Amino acid sequence: MGKAKAWGGVIGFVLVVGACNSVSGNSDDTTTPSSTPAAQDATAIAIPPSAAPMTTAPAARFECRSVDTVYDGDRTCHPGGEQVIVTRAIDGDTVELADGRRIRLLGVDAPEADTCAGPGATEFTRSKVQGRAVMLHKEPGVDLDPYGRTLAYLQFGPYFATDLGNELVLEGWATPYEGGQANTTYMDNIRSSHGIAEYRPNGIYAHPCGSPKVYGDDDGDGTPDYDDHVNVDAPNLPDGSLTGGYCARKWWC
């Protein structure tokens, strides 16, 4: 009697295990549902480009939800645009794309690669965008320059929020390109960045390629204007310890 009960328990266990495998799908059928909510969410979320160099077009396209209608170069993404890969920095303001197009940045002018600050400007652009995904934005009605290069703006970095031209100017590697085809809003921002950069000893404003401006030096002689009053003869002033016959940043000068 004991052996019969034992064999009955074993048979019952085998039947239960077989039924569980049939229900859970652990048989020869290894197919999975074609789509799940998690899979749909994963494909809908656009992933910003990573810092790792890239040589092929990214699978995901970043969608900017900004309401800007005019490209302004501020540190925010801009709607629209074309996601591309930069394969080479030709110089500070010119790059080559994976599809062979050459892009000349609108609104800025960097030194040529073979001039004093040229290698530094080229290296700056290379460090920011070469081998990476960027967003290309066109100015309405603007296409190619006389050399066949596409005139455009480029944004890079997380969420494509950083304008390459503005960064070049702000860090002293380029100047505003007046008389070009960039829009006025963008150019106003570029000029503001230039107004900051020209007082810093960076890029084209650093030795040996140049020197920064001096605060308070409106006449361009390299010193603050209040220093121009030092050692000025003042024969009509009374002699004494306060005057000494000259002005030295005194209130009456």
TrEMBL record:
Put simply, this protein is called: Nuclease homologue
Task: Cite the SMART domains for this sequence.
Answer: SNc
Q: Where is the TNase-like domain?
A: 80-207
- Please name the Pfam families in this protein's record: SNase (PF00565)
Tell me the organism.
Answer: Saccharopolyspora kobensis
Tell me which domain of life the UniProt entry assigns to the organism this sequence originates from: Bacteria
